[in-house]
Amino acid sequence: MISLKRYEQCVAIANDESRDLRVRLLALRMAMRVCSALGTMRGLEMAQARRMLRGHRFTKHRLATLENAYREFRDFLKESLEHSGRWLIATGPALEELGFSTLCDLLSVNPVHRVQIKGQIDDHGDADTLIGYLLWDGGCYEDSAEHLSGRRKRWSTGPLTRAKTAAFHRALLDHPHILKQAFAPGGPFYGVPSYTIQPDGSMKRNAPALVVHSRDGGQRIVERSGR
What distance in Å separates the CA atoms of residue 29 and residue 225, rounded to the nearest whole number? Predict the structure, then answer.
């Protein structure tokens, strides 16, 4: 049964450090599934309430109360996702000790995708943890064994993948300089077009910075205006 009590029970198991790490990971996966289901259920209930109460003189205050409660609950679920994502990142090295096959079993990764992940690890070495490879932002590996045997990819649908992605998004919002560094010369997104929303709602393309090299081997970065 999907309920807030079930979510709290799963979170309690996931936070119990005396339990096996595999049990804690499975409990966290279940907690995130319940979290997602609760968000969908509350969203449908709120949509129904809007249809029933909107436009009536004596229900305006009641609808406003329900809207506030829904926003608070939605923020609570969002914070839960972000917190779980941060835990996954921090616990990555310990989870890696469980081994590749065990993690793939716990995350229900399709055997075909396991071969792909192995190839990525061979290509990039230790550039990331196993959790980083299995739960990459926007990824499709988690629960891929349940999606038509991996023949049709479903992006970012895994519960822990969503949690890790939420933590990544929160980090970008809290530390915007990270994103600027990513688009700077030498960053992974250097040269990728970015846009800024103007006051009138239009989009202005930001021109990438230009690196000017001198004869003596030095270099300087020239910022260019967008268009």
Answer: 46
